């Protein structure tokens, strides 16, 4: 996913500060909670995007809503964003921060698509083999898509390995048509 430049800059600043203060895990949890709150509450999203509500009023509302729920570091960061008129980008900053933390920790995100839900042993086996191949820790997400018919489609670090029956049929059809 491409993030706005402002999200990248604020995310990097937050990452640097969290590492410097040895509060990376807490800040990561805070960013994840904030992302969830914005996604689940259309009112919060509208507040953050509203050009009508002034920054100081937004700060008061945000402090009331999230009183005691975030670390002082993250609260100050949200207030800084609001003060600088960048609160509309809070969700993208938090999402980018999550990606940056994974990269900082040397964790690679991988996504697997299958026709059926993979059992725990298959997921563990996939994570172990992929981790050994890449030499990194793997964070695996999974989705089920019956249209793949069988096999797996794996997406990792911008690459896609399509070893599905539907993918093989598509390739065969393209070869036969050309």
Entry summary:
With 178 residues, the protein is of the alpha+beta class. The protein has eight helices and four strands, in the order H-H-H-H-H-H-E-H-E-E-E-H. It folds into two domains: 5-103, Orthogonal Bundle (Peroxidase, domain 1), CATH 1.10.520; 106-177, 3-Layer(aba) Sandwich (Glutaredoxin), CATH 3.40.30.
Provide an overview of this structure:
There is one protein chain. The protein contains 8 helices and 4 strands; from the N terminus they run ααααααβαβββα. It is an alpha+beta fold. The protein has 2 domains: 5-103, N-terminal domain of the delta subunit of the F1F0-ATP synthase (Peroxidase, domain 1, Orthogonal Bundle); 106-177, Glutaredoxin (3-Layer(aba) Sandwich), CATH 3.40.30. Strands 2-1-3-4 form a 4-stranded mixed sheet. It is elongated. The mean pLDDT is 96.
With helices defined by DSSP (H or I, 4 residues minimum), what is the helix count? 8
Counting DSSP E segments of at least 2 residues, the number of strands comes to 4
Strand content: 15-25%
> Please, what is the oligomeric state?
single chain
Alpha carbon gyration radius? 21 Å
Overall shape: it is elongated
Enumerate the spans where pLDDT stays under 50 for 5 or more consecutive residues.
Answer: none
CATH topology of the largest domain: Peroxidase, domain 1
Helical coverage, percent range: 55-70%
Secondary-structure class: alpha+beta
In CATH, the homologous superfamily of the largest domain goes by the name N-terminal domain of the delta subunit of the F1F0-ATP synthase
The helix/strand order is HHHHHHEHEEEH
- The overall pLDDT average reads 96
Overall tally of domains: 2
The level-1 CATH class of the largest domain? Mainly Alpha
Largest sheet: 4 strands, mixed
Intertermini distance? 33 Å
């Amino acid at each position: 996913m491409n993030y706005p430049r402002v999200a990248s800059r604020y995310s990097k600043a937050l990452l640097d500060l969290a590492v410097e203060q040895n509060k990376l895990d807490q800040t990561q949890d805070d960013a994840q909670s904030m992302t969830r709150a914005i996604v689940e509450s259309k009112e919060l999203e509208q507040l953050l995007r509203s050009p009508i509500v002034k920054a100081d009023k937004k700060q008061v509302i945000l402090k009331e809503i999230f009183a005691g729920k975030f670390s002082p570091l993250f609260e100050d960061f949200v207030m800084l964003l609001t003060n600088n008129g960048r609160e509309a980008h809070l969700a993208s900053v938090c999402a980018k921060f999550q990606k940056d933390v994974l990269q900082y920790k040397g964790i690679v995100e991988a996504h697997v698509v299958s026709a059926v839900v993979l059992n725990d042993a298959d997921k563990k086996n996939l994570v172990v083999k992929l981790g050994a191949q890449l030499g990194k820790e793997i964070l695996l997400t999974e989705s089920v898509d019956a249209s793949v018919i069988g096999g797996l489609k794996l997406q990792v670090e911008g690459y896609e390995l399509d070893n599905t029956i539907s993918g093989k049929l598509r390739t065969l059809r393209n070869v036969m048509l050309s």
